[in-house]
Amino acid sequence: MKKGFFKLKTPKDVYKIIETFSNLGNEIVNIKDSLNRMCFKDIYSDVDLPNFNRSTVDGYAIKAKDSFGASESTPVFFKIIGEIKMGEKADYTLNDGEAIRISTGGMLPQGSDAIVMLEYTNELDKNTLEARKSVSPLENVIQVGDDIKKGQLVIKKGFKVRPQDIGMLAAIGKKFISVYKRPKVAIISTGDELSEIDKEIPLGKIRDVNSYTLSSLIKEVGAESICFGIVKDKFLDLKKKCEEALNKADIILISGGSSVGTMDITLDVINSFPYSEILVHGISVSPGKPTILAKVGNKAVWGLPGHVVSAMIVFLIFIKSMIKKIGGYYKYKYISEKSTFATLTKNIAKAQGREDYTRVKLFKGEDGIIYAEPILGKSGLISSMVKADGIIRIDMNSEGIEAGEKVEVILF
């Protein structure tokens, strides 16, 4: 006799359980390998950037007060005393009425406080400069620390490293940084009916779609996916695969192991491991009710529905958040960070006591309003996910949503 579900957990219950899992710790990486990694600790600059006053234009370093009144009709004249090239230390001290040639990025000499642009000057001879525009103090100048000040926080713990952050780290001389370890997520597809995707399949068999959709979702969230292939609905086969997965991954997804026909095998395999605990045995969501979450040691084991839409939505509303939690994200939203509002085109009815997620397609009407059209279909239809732009959440205490209501669409 097959066991039924224990008392169903609400989504909020599941989120609280997810929060009990710890992050994976840290590792040191070269900044070249830090893109999209989560920063493990606050990073502060050890230097001022720039560490010398720099010119932002090609021109002449002068004392701003010496250019007072300069114009096209009444130019001011300076004595040229030298040139500062890019990358050179400025070994000059500027006196009143003197100017020094300087390039963009060049170091300002002592005594100067502004740059008059090349376009507003003319060298009458190699020692005499004509300036036809006055400048104010610090005009065309970047001062010490204008970009980044010594001791300034440059990347906060738990934030994702972006290309511009890597450039900034290089600018302040940080070649290595500490990041959270990237979660490794194992995928085990179970079912006597499953076949590899590149083979001709006899009637009654189906291709293993979930390995590919789940693997892509895992990579999209910044984790590493490890596929363990297809396992028949046999205790020993599944136990062996789970042992391998537990040795290599931080989260194990058993796809197809939560249906009524295979639930007992999955539960028995999980319970056969030391220090195992069933945390969730069914969730009050649709699709995705027959979902299992267990803990083996300090690792999470999920039993997902075999239907591709159910598995994908359970991933999006629960597993994605777990990956972010153990992967060190500073802050994250359950379900999705991306959403928009639209007007519903059709009534959607639902049973109370469960949270529903309905796929929708967005389009812009002739009135300029963005509409959300429900895509109604069974959880085994991958085409419904392809057609959809996102999903809408219907609260468990609601009986549905009426056409014309504004809804929040969680975007894929």
Pick out its properties.
Molybdenum Cofactor Biosythetic Enzyme, Chain A, 7 helices, Molybdopterin biosynthesis moea protein, domain 2, 28 strands, six-stranded mixed sheet, 412 residues, alpha/beta, 4 domains, Molybdopterin biosynthesis moeA protein, domain 3, single chain
Q: Pick out the low-confidence regions.
A: none
- Structural class of the helices, strands and pairings? alpha/beta
Identify the CATH class of the largest domain: Alpha Beta
The figure for the number of domains is 4
Largest sheet: 6 strands, mixed
Strand order of the largest sheet: 7-4-6-5-9-8
- CA radius of gyration: 32 Å
CATH architecture of the largest domain: 3-Layer(aba) Sandwich
Question: How many β strands by DSSP?
Answer: 28
How much of the sequence lies in strands comes to 25-35%
Helix content: 10-25%
End-to-end Cα distance, whole Å, is: 40 Å
SS element count, helices:
7
Name the average pLDDT. 92
CATH fold-type name of the largest domain: Molybdenum Cofactor Biosythetic Enzyme, Chain A
Q: Shape, please?
A: elongated
CATH superfamily of the largest domain: MoaB/Mog-like domain
Report on the structure:
This protein is α/β, with parallel strands linked by helices and 412 residues long. It has four domains: 11-24 and 181-326, MoaB/Mog-like domain (Molybdenum Cofactor Biosythetic Enzyme, Chain A); 26-49 and 148-179, Molybdopterin biosynthesis moea protein, domain 2 (Alpha-Beta Complex); 54-142, Molybdopterin biosynthesis moea protein, domain 3 (Molybdopterin biosynthesis moeA protein, domain 3); 339-411, MoeA, C-terminal, domain IV (Beta-clip, Beta Barrel). Helices cover 18% and strands 31% of the residues. It has a six-stranded mixed beta sheet with strand order 7-4-6-5-9-8, with no helix packed on it. A six-stranded mixed beta sheet has the order 16-13-17-21-20-18, with helices on both faces. The chain has a five-stranded mixed barrel with strand order 22-25-24-26-28. A hairpin with a 2-residue loop joins strand 8 and strand 9. The radius of gyration is 32 Å and the shape is elongated. The two termini are 40 Å apart. The model has no long low-confidence stretch (mean pLDDT 92).
